[in-house]
């Protein structure tokens, strides 16, 4: 047990808050990375397959801001122009319509839920 005098109380509280902030930032970064990988796997598994090129094209891009915040973007590098058409459907050349296959939106909703759940679990004291 550590004894802190009245003069050192503010320094001790400040040090404890900085330590918790660093821990929270590290846990958040790790959780975001895990959730992004899981999201990519779910999208890849649910993607429409004709040749397999589209499904294999899912990648993750990490962006770190100057203050240390991390964001992960899941995108399709192989055929980025197909994502909207395959997700929402499109008109055919000779008339008619191709129905969309929702494969991105369900994975996105699941990723949001996983992120909140993971952060609550990891940051609870």
List the helices and strands and how they pair.
Elements: H1 9-46, H2 53-56, E1 58-64, E2 70-76, H3 82-88, E3 90-91, E4 97-98, H4 105-123
Antiparallel strand pairs: 1-2, 3-4
Helix pairs in contact: 1-4
Outline the structure in words:
This protein has one domain. It has four helices and four strands, in the order H-H-E-E-H-E-E-H. The strands form two sheets. It has a two-stranded antiparallel ribbon with strand order 1-2. Strands 3-4 form a two-stranded antiparallel ribbon. Helix 1 packs antiparallel against helix 4. The two termini are 19 Å apart. The mean pLDDT is 91.
List keywords for this structure.
two-stranded antiparallel sheet; alpha+beta; 4 helices; single chain; two-stranded antiparallel ribbon; 125 residues
Describe the structure concisely.
This protein is an alpha+beta fold. The protein has four helices and four strands, in the order ααββαββα. The strands form two sheets. The protein has a two-stranded antiparallel sheet with strand order 1-2. A two-stranded antiparallel ribbon has the order 3-4.
- The SSE string, one letter per element, is HHEEHEEH
* Total of helices: 4
Main beta-sheet strand count, sense and barrel state: 2 strands, antiparallel
Number of separate domains: 1
Determine the N-to-C terminus distance. Answer: 19 Å
> What is the overall shape?
rod-shaped
> Averaged pLDDT, please?
91
What is the percentage of strand-forming residues? 5-15%
SS content category: alpha+beta
Low-pLDDT sequence parts: none
Arrangement of strands in the largest sheet: 1-2
Q: Name the helicity range.
A: 40-55%
Rg is: 22 Å
How many strands? 4
């Amino acid at each position: 047990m550590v004894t802190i005098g009245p003069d050192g109380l503010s320094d001790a509280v400040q040090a404890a808050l900085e330590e918790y902030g660093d821990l929270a930032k590290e846990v958040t970064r790790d959780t975001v990375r895990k959730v992004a990988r899981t999201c990519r796997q779910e999208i890849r598994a649910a993607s429409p397959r004709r040749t397999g090129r589209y499904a294999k094209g899912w990648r993750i891009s990490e962006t770190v801001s100057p203050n240390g915040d991390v964001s992960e973007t899941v995108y399709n590098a192989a055929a980025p122009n197909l994502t909207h058409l395959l997700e929402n459907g499109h008109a055919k050349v000779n008339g008619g319509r191709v129905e969309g296959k929702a494969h991105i939106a369900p994975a996105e909703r699941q990723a949001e839920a996983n992120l909140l759940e993971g952060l609550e679990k990891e940051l609870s004291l």
